[in-house]
Amino acid sequence: MLKRGCLLSSTMEKIVAKLLVGNWKMNGVKLALQEADLIAAAAKTALGQSIQLAICPPATLLARLSEATAGTGLLTGAQDCHAKASGAHTGDISAAMVKDAGGHFVIVGHSERRADHGESSEMVRNKAQAALEAGLVPIVCVGETRAEREAGQAEAIVLSQVEGSVPETFPDGGLVIAYEPVWAIGTGLVPSAADVLAMHQAVHESLVSRFGAKGASIQILYGGSVNGQNAGDLLHLAHVDGALVGGASLTADGFLKILHAIQE
Ligand code: PGA
Fold first, then answer.
1. Residue-wise pLDDT tens digits, 182-222
2. Ligand 1 pocket member 186 (CB < 6 A)
3. Contact yes or no for 178/141 (Cβ under 8 A)
4. Distance from C-alpha of 124 to C-alpha of 165, rounded to nearest angstrom
5. How far is the CA of 12 from the centre of ligand 1 (A)?
6. How many CB atoms lie within 10 A of CB 250?
7. For ligand 1, atom 3: residue with the closest CA
8. Where are the domains of the chain?
9. Which position among 25, 56, 241, 260 has the lowest Cβ density within 10 Å, counted as fewest Cβ atoms?
10. CATH of domain 18-263
């Protein structure tokens, strides 16, 4: 049973109790759609329990995945978008293109993009703004490195990323944050429950102090080595409103184990 239920009540409340988003990163060709079909088959039941499932495949698969899963309850999204609406930006995709391809979400500011593409919080904020203007829900990623945590700076870094990356205005329920410690991504390492709880609490409080009741409605996902074994403990913590899942989302088996862990 979910311990924190808040389905579709007042506009200031969180839209669903839990949100599970698969981030396939640069993995998956057409064959991977079979995994998504299996995930989609579980999406309606999950939704009935106030758990929203979503997959963010590589951009090449987004339109196909959105078409294949339309009406199933499984939502889709992209892993990045450009801050500009159109123009001479070879290789990039705009938020409107993501929307046109059937996307509902777009991940912005993932630590791999911050590291590999030098994305600053200001750039991430501009991407989130572009996503909002296109009618998408941005999933704004933040998280500290191992060195920052060891130096006792984790909370300060994360809160400054939140401050710098989240745009000033967004619709109720129209923006999601993912706290992903960089050192936990793809490593099998997970912070202690106490550390996750403390960070989610701190992010929640900073959002409430900046945006008031609307800030309280922002869902805060945890990401970094989430799997079927640890999801039950992590996702029942206060202010952990779901998960952004990399490796374990690549197979239906791995992703649905996470779903089952939080349904218990
Ligand atoms: P992971 O990735 O679950 O493979 O650690 C999470 C993410 O980077 O979103």
1. 999 999 999 999 999 999 999 999 999 999 999 999 999 99
2. yes
3. yes
4. 5
5. 29
6. 19
7. 246
8. 18-263
9. 260
10. 3.20.20.70
Q: Which residue has the tokens 């429950």?
A: 193
In 3D space, the residue among 253, 259, 244, 254 whose CA is nearest the CA of residue 56 turns out to be 244
- Closest residue by Cα to atom 2, ligand 1, is 246
Question: From atom 1 of ligand 1, which residue's Cα is the shortest distance away?
Answer: 246
Q: Which atom, in ligand 1's list, is nearest to the CA of 185? A: 5
Token pair belonging to 206? 């900073």
State which of 226, 235, 249 you would mutate to test the pocket of ligand 1, scoring each by most atoms of that ligand within 8 A of its C-beta. 226
Q: Which residues are catalytic?
A: 110, 180
Among the listed residues 146, 218, 223, the one whose alpha carbon sits nearest the alpha carbon of residue 179: 223
Q: What is the pTM of this model?
A: 0.94
Dig out the tokens for 137 from the structure. Answer: 């829900």
Residue 121, token pair as written in the block: 């919080």
